[in-house]
Design a protein that fits this description.
The complex is a heterodimer of chains A (316) and B (336). Chain A is mainly alpha-helical and 316 residues long. Chain A has 2 domains: 73 residues, no CATH class; 228 residues, Orthogonal Bundle (MetI-like fold), CATH 1.10.3720.10. Chain A is built from 13 helices and no strands. The radius of gyration of chain A is 24 Å and the shape is globular. The termini of chain A are close together. In chain B, helix 6 runs parallel beside helix 7. In chain B, the strands form 2 sheets. In chain B, strands 6-7-8-3-9-10-12-11 form an 8-stranded mixed beta sheet, with helices on both faces. Chain B has 2 domains: 217 residues, P-loop containing nucleotide triphosphate hydrolases (Rossmann fold, 3-Layer(aba) Sandwich); 95 residues, no CATH class. Chain B is globular. Classes of the chains: A mainly alpha (316), B alpha/beta (336). Chains A and B meet through helix 9, helix 10 and helix 13 of A and helix 2, helix 3 and helix 6 of B.
């Protein structure tokens, strides 16, 4: 187990390093001078030069990269070009919204997908299977922002149950915050759940064809017991793999959905920072998203070993 | 456990199984009848696709939902065909057990072997976890798994094929079943292991007074391990009787062909193996008459009109052929 874990941690660090280099180089290669952008087209060249020095943009590439890494290690990410406040604070403020949103959305995805996937596999080729699978087909084809607008029309405009947008914050307790994140979380979850439901269904069906399922039946277990005790755990590996990949999609989806619902989250911060050429904020936000995706997939890898006893041995 | 010793434990009458295959409905088994007394052993022999495994699965009630079973299967007088699955579950692994062909895939890779062997005990006898575990260790020890007490918490991938087959045998025997169905239990194993596993099964059958149905494509395995045998072809039993009687006087051209087709030790290098001409008929479109007609050396027009009845050629020795007069005049004999 320790060798397995060590190897995964090394992979994790290497991936994060590669991501940081790519993010830094790509943003650095963008045309235009940040100082020029900030001061406007008719600023005096002297003033632009002064700002360039002040922002540290005159330093060589490697020095700037190392300063960034050092800053990340110490928690000092520098100040936003536009707001002038620390980037770390800006991001922290937004994470209070985006992390609960991502968690809620992932939970809804998993609950919907596992229920639908297991139900359809257990009722393979029957009416319920065909019906639910047709629904997932529609779900996959839905753009999430369009579905979000439908949800707003139904729950906010027609039924007036939930707000059409905005975030209530966590100051008045947990419920108002969750309530304002409910529609965005559902919009993000539906498409993902449709895909994950299909993955779950085919994974369960595949395991149902295994010999050990027949053995379990021959021991006197009913179909339902076989499904819960023998099939699901075996079917979880592909399901978890896809869940890990979907997490990246989910974070990308927040950029669009937070804009649809006027939520002051990380996605909206990235969107605005790109529009403002606030590259220092963009760089750190993108790095954070990359780190979240890499870490979630690391956790998935480690969970494999807990689920499947064969994995530990294979990697020792 | 009522009834006299001679009353059959299992009585199968005119069993038919229709399967829905991708090529349309197929009559995988038809007109299979036999009975098995307590402690008796019966062999089912035939090529793949002859219906022997389907017959076994029908006895276990484990055919796919789309399969249509006709006829009757009685266990100590109570009918099993059409039994609700919930009630069948109380018999499976308890009174009728089965060992499968592929020990490598027959065990759940995610559960320890101890848990898997204890599962039928917990299910049918309602004994507690600790007690079931103790019994599982005793069973694993009995089937010859080395160091059972220490390895009970190991996972299937940590065992060899032969060891895994021992584990599945322990699992099948956990609840002291009346009938053990062994479907090609040694086909997937190394030759040296095959004998050990068959000996183990024979010992256990004797020791516990179980009845056994042994399925194999190997005439040698059948000859050495069962009292009575049935030869299946195209879903029907073409020959049945005491193992000795069948091997001394093979009545059906198919049985004879099967016997001639076995590879012989000591044959000169380069000698071609004898085969039966033609291929096994598709179950989806079986001929109207004798299923073996297209491959038979002594076929006549009359063979193709209707399925031949079983002809009695000796005490309890039945042959489903209308030309036994010709076929048995030139029958090969085991040992000859």
């Amino acid at each position: 187990m320790s060798v397995f874990l060590l190897r995964r941690i090394l992979t994790l660090v290497a991936t994060l390093f590669a991501a940081s280099v790519i993010i830094f180089l790509v943003l650095d290669a963008l045309p235009g001078n940040a100082a020029q952008m900030l001061m406007g087209a008719d600023a005096s060249p002297d003033a632009v030069r002064a700002l360039t020095v002040k922002l540290g943009l005159d330093q060589p590439l490697t020095v700037r990269y190392l300063l960034w890494i050092k800053g990340m290690a110490s928690g000092d990410l520098g100040n936003s070009y536009v707001y002038g406040t620390p980037v770390a604070g800006l991001i922290a403020e937004r994470l209070v919204l985006t992390i609960p949103l991502a968690i809620m959305s992932m939970l809804i995805t998993v609950v919907l997908a596992l229920t639908a996937g297991i139900y359809t596999a257990a009722n393979h080729n029957r009416f319920g299977d065909v019906g639910v699978m047709s629904l997932t087909q529609v779900g996959i084809a839905l753009p999430n922002f369009w579905f979000a607008i439908l949800l707003i029309l139904l729950f906010a405009v027609k039924l007036q149950l939930l707000a059409a947008g905005g975030f209530a914050g966590w100051d008045d307790g947990i419920w108002p915050g969750i309530k304002s994140l409910l529609l965005p979380a559902i919009s993000l979850a539906v498409v993902q759940a449709a895909i994950l439901a299909r993955v779950t269904r085919s994974a369960v069906l595949e395991v149902l064809r295994e010999d050990f399922v027949r053995t379990a039946r021959a021991k006197g277990l009913g179909k339902r017991e076989v499904l819960w005790r023998h099939v699901l755990r075996n079917a979880m590996i592909p399901v978890m793999t896809v869940m890990g990949l979907q997490f990246a999609n989910l974070l990308a989806g927040t950029i669009v959905i937070e804009n649809v619902f006027y939520l002051p989250g990380l996605g909206r911060l990235i969107f605005q920072s790109i529009a403002n050429r606030d590259l220092i904020v963009v760089r750190n936000c993108v790095m954070l998203l990359a780190a979240m995706v890499v870490i979630v997939n690391f956790v998935v890898d480690v969970l494999y070993a807990f689920i499947d006893p064969r994995i530990k041995v294979a990697n020792l | 456990m009522n009834g006299s010793a001679s009353a059959p434990l299992i009585e199968v009458k005119d069993l038919g199984v229709r399967l829905n295959t991708s090529r349309g409905p197929a009559q995988a088994v038809r007109g299979v009848s036999f009975s098995l007394r307590r402690g008796e052993t019966l062999g089912l022999v035939g090529e793949s696709g002859c219906g022997k495994s389907v017959t076994a699965l029908a006895l276990m009630g484990l055919l796919p939902d789309s399969a249509v079973v006709s006829g009757s299967i009685r266990l100590e007088g109570s009918e099993l065909v059409g039994l609700l699955d919930a009630r069948y579950c109380k018999l499976r692994g308890n009174r009728i057990s089965m060992i499968f062909q592929e020990p490598m895939t027959a065990l759940n890779p995610m559960h320890t072997i101890g848990r898997q062997v204890a599962e039928p005990l917990r299910r049918h006898t309602g004994c507690a976890t600790g007690e079931a575990r103790k019994q599982a260790i005793a069973l694993l020890d009995r089937v010859g798994l080395p160091d059972a007490a220490r390895r009970v918490d190991a996972y299937p991938h940590q065992f060899s094929g032969g060891q895994r087959q021992r584990i599945t045998i322990a699992m099948a025997l956990a609840c002291q079943p009346d009938v053990l169905i062994a479907d090609e239990p040694t086909t997937a194993l190394d030759v040296t292991i095959q004998g050990q596993i068959l000996d183990l099964i024979a010992d256990l059958v004797e020791e516990r007074g179980m009845s056994m149905i042994l399925i194999s494509h190997d005439l040698g395995v059948i000859a050495e391990n069962v009292q009575r045998m049935m030869v299946m072809y195209g879903g029907t039993v073409v020959e049945s009787g005491e193992t000795n009687a069948v091997f001394t006087r093979m009545g059906h051209p198919y049985t004879q062909g099967l016997f001639r087709a076995r590879p012989k030790l000591g044959a000169r290098k380069g000698t071609r193996l004898t085969t039966i001409a033609g291929t096994v008929p598709e179950l989806a479109d079986l001929p109207a008459g004798c299923t073996f007609a297209d491959r038979c050396g002594i076929v006549v027009e009359r063979c193709r009109t209707a399925l031949p009845p079983a002809v009695d050629v000796g005490a309890g020795h039945g042959v489903r052929c209308i030309r036994t007069d010709v076929s048995m005049a030139s029958a090969p004999r085991a040992g000859a």
